[in-house]
Design a protein that fits this description.
Radius of gyration: 20 Å
Structural class: alpha+beta
Number of helices: 4
Low-confidence stretches: none
Strand order of the largest sheet: 3-4-11-10-9-8
Helix content: 10-25%
Mean pLDDT: 88
Strand content: 35-45%
Largest sheet: 6 strands, mixed
Length: about 210
Amino acid sequence: MIAWEAFNYQGVEYDLTHLHPCRLQYIQSAKSGQPERTYTVEVCYSLHCFSKTLSTAADPHLNYSDARETRTFDLERYKLSKQLPQIIQDLSSKRCMHTGKGNFFVVEVVTSSGAKEDYEVYFDVQNSSAKGVIARLFVQSAGNYLLWLDCRDMKRDDQQLKRFFVEKAGVGLIPGILFGEQGSGFMRMNIAAPRSLIRQALEQIAQADQARK
């Protein structure tokens, strides 16, 4: 487990102690005659929580490395990462979703400069061999990767929207309804992909939408 060193850029030090490994306790309330239980979990954070894919166009002084890779330090992700410890502490009271690829994610709505935005936290959980620790929770990545598409003017229900994007546009999007009733009529697009792929998907959506009119 890594205790991340502070990052220095243009005379400013960015402290990363909030992302150092730690142990948290989660309490399972008494239920059906079973007593209250306390579980200790070891938490550690990835380099991806405060950096983005290495860019050759970025200032090389923004490079940050661990033993496996070098990435570009991202100030916006760094700012958002300040909220990670509390998000992870409160996981037991949040709705966590399975990605279908062995890990989980939770979506937080955070306020940055007065604006609300989604902050997606991806993590996996494994058994721990450490004494007194039931599991190891590894926060793999955290950031804003999904774009909300407002489809309410299409006058279709959520199932119809999903079929339209898959069958007509050939694009797999995430129904907004999965994130609560307020997401009905919206679709979510993962933009953690090459720009060329995103452009192609948007062109396919535009063509399918034009064809339906």
